[in-house]
Every structure is written in structure tokens, then in C-alpha cells.
């Protein structure tokens, strides 16, 4: 219990500077300030046209359980098991996402370094997905609830019910 609370506190402390950075920017300027140009990005509209892909959710288990994109596979934020991933990733397109694209870019980079040729980071993450009016789900079916860290991130969500 203490370890979980400590991990959550450390994670929030790491995100705090990003939240401050977000204060005076629009969403896309904010996203562009977080992401590198090294990792291929895919927009929500481009993803809608994509065929034969696997979608990996790179958020915490709690975030995933509150809501996720349909058919996404939860792989977690860290400690990715590449042996397990290798069994499901084959040669298809791999699209990774998190809240806004920052955490998922880290997994995308690792997958590219592991030799996967078709890896994309969903630009704007699940926040952009829901802002574009796309559906999200949880274990009970469709939902409108989206996990958000704090008020500095909540301002980026235009659609949906925010959960902290």
C-alpha cells in the first residue's frame, strides 16, 4: 500500500513540470513540445483509415480500466515484456498511445530499436481520440469517462467526463 502511494507520488512529481509547461499553450503546441520528430506519428483520422494494426495502451492499469480505445491491448507504462510483446506484434502496424503521446513515444522508440519496422505514436493520444468524438470503452462497454491527472491536463479534454 505504501509502495503504491509512493510510486503514484513520484509519478505525479515527474508530471508536475509538464503540467506547468502546459499552462499557456494550446493543445497542439503542448503536444509538439513533448514529442520528438524521431518517432513516426499517426493522427486519429489516419488511424481510422489504417487496416491490419495492433493498438497498445501505454497508460497505467487504472487509466486503462477507466477507459480505453476499443481493441487496445494494455501493456502498461514501464517494464515492458518484449518476449510477451513479440508473440503478438508480428509484422503488422503497431500503434501506441497514452494520454497525450509522451509515455507512448518511449515504448515506440524501444519497439523501433527492437527492430519493429511499422511503429506509430498516436498524435495527441486518447485525449485527441475523445476530442475528435471517437468512442472509448471500459469493461462494462461504452463510456464517456476519461482519466486525467489534474486540472492542468483536464483543460485539454473537450469531450467526455473527466476522472481524477
Summarize the structure.
The protein has a single domain, classed as Oxidized Rhodanese, domain 1. It is 44% helix and 18% strand. It is built from 8 helices and 9 strands.
Explain what this protein looks like in three dimensions.
This protein has helices at 2-22, 27-34, 44-49, 61-66, 82-89, 102-113, 125-131, 151-154; strands spanning 41-42, 53-57, 73-74, 93-97, 119-122, 136-138, 141-143, 145-147, 161-163. The chain has 164 residues and is an alpha/beta fold. The protein has a single domain, classed as Rhodanese-like domain (Oxidized Rhodanese, domain 1). Helix 4 (61-66) links the parallel strand 2 (53-57) and strand 3 (73-74). The longest helix is centred in the first third of the chain and has 21 residues, at 2-22. The relative contact order is 0.18.
Order of helices and strands: HHEHEHEHEHEHEEEHE
| Alpha-carbon Rg, integer | 15 Å
Hey, roughly how much beta strand do the residues contain? Answer: 15-25%
- What is CATH's topology name? Oxidized Rhodanese, domain 1
User: In this structure, how is the largest beta sheet organized?
Assistant: 5 strands, parallel
Q: What overall geometry do the principal axes of the alpha carbons give?
A: globular
Structural class: alpha/beta
- Name the CATH homologous superfamily: Rhodanese-like domain
Strand order of the largest sheet: 1-5-4-2-3
Mean pLDDT over all positions: 86
CATH class: Alpha Beta
Q: Number of domains in the coordinates?
A: 1
Number of strands: 9
Helix % is: 40-55%
Ends: how far apart?
19 Å
CATH architecture: 3-Layer(aba) Sandwich
Count of DSSP-assigned helices: 8
Query: Low-confidence spans: pLDDT under 50, at least 5 residues?
Result: 18-23
Amino acid at each position: 500500500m505504501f509502495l503504491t502511494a509512493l510510486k503514484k507520488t513520484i509519478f505525479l512529481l515527474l508530471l508536475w513540470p509538464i503540467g506547468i509547461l502546459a499552462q499557456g499553450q494550446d493543445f497542439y503546441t503542448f503536444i509538439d513540445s513533448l514529442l520528438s520528430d524521431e518517432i513516426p506519428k499517426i493522427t486519429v483520422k489516419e488511424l481510422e483509415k489504417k487496416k491490419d494494426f495492433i493498438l497498445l495502451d501505454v497508460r497505467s492499469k487504472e487509466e486503462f480500466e477507466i477507459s480505453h480505445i476499443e481493441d487496445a491491448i494494455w501493456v502498461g507504462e514501464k517494464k515492458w515484456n518484449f518476449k510477451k510483446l513479440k508473440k503478438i506484434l508480428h509484422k503488422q502496424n503497431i500503434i501506441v498511445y497514452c494520454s497525450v503521446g509522451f509515455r507512448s513515444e518511449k515504448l515506440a522508440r524501444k519497439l523501433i530499436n527492437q527492430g519493429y519496422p511499422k511503429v506509430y505514436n498516436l498524435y495527441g493520444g486518447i485525449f485527441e481520440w475523445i476530442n475528435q468524438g471517437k468512442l472509448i470503452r471500459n469493461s462494462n462497454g461504452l463510456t464517456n469517462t476519461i482519466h486525467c491527472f489534474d486540472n492542468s491536463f483536464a483543460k485539454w479534454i473537450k469531450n467526455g467526463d473527466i476522472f481524477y
